[in-house]
């Protein structure tokens, strides 16, 4: 019953607004009418949602989605950290493909830099280093190539 009354009141308010705005603004009444209708429709939807208790459902759904999003974000932290580390490595003028480096006592040439890992060719082996570890560790660069500044 309350929803029916609210719908009738909504219709009457729309008709009244249209009549008043047309008389007051003549030419530009449509622009003002659209803004007023959006405000009145928002109040109407809010009232109907309150009466039908729709917001309790929406709050529950949003809380669940937020919790799942938080779990998803926490699960991806190591990968996102590696991606940001790869960006900093890509911007570093000293560490490039072909550079001769040493990290944690292991020396070799950089042969690949990807989003999550860097591959170094060591003494008859490949060393795969996560980019986060490469960024956080002390890296000794032995390259004899001239280092060009990016600036």
TrEMBL record:
Domain Mechanosensitive ion channel MscS residues, every copy: 79-139
Cross-referenced InterPro entries: LSM_dom_sf, MscS_beta-dom_sf, MscS_channel_2nd
GO terms for biological process, alphabetical: transmembrane transport
Pfam entry (one): MS_channel_2nd
Keywords recorded for this protein, A-Z: Membrane, Transmembrane, Transmembrane helix
Cellular component annotations (GO), alphabetically ordered: membrane
Membrane-spanning intervals of the chain: 32-50, 57-80
Compartments, record wording: Membrane
Gene3D superfamilies attached to this UniProt entry: 2.30.30.60
Stated name of the protein: Mechanosensitive ion channel MscS domain-containing protein
């Amino acid at each position: 019953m309350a929803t029916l009354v609210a719908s009738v009141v909504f219709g009457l308010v729309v008709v009244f607004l249209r009549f008043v705005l047309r008389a007051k603004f003549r030419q530009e009444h449509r622009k003002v009418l659209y803004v007023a209708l959006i405000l009145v429709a928002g109040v109407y939807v809010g009232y109907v949602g309150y009466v039908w208790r729709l917001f309790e459902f929406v709050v529950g759904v949003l809380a669940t989605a937020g919790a799942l999003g938080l779990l998803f974000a926490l699960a991806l932290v190591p990968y996102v950290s590696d991606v940001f580390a790869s960006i900093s490595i890509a911007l570093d003028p000293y560490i490039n493909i072909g550079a001769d480096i040493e990290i944690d006592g292991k020396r070799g040439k950089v042969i690949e830099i990807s989003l999550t890992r860097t591959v170094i060719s060591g003494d008859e082996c490949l060393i795969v280093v996560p980019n986060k570890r490469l960024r956080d560790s002390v890296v000794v660069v032995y390259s004899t190539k001239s280092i060009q500044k990016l600036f």
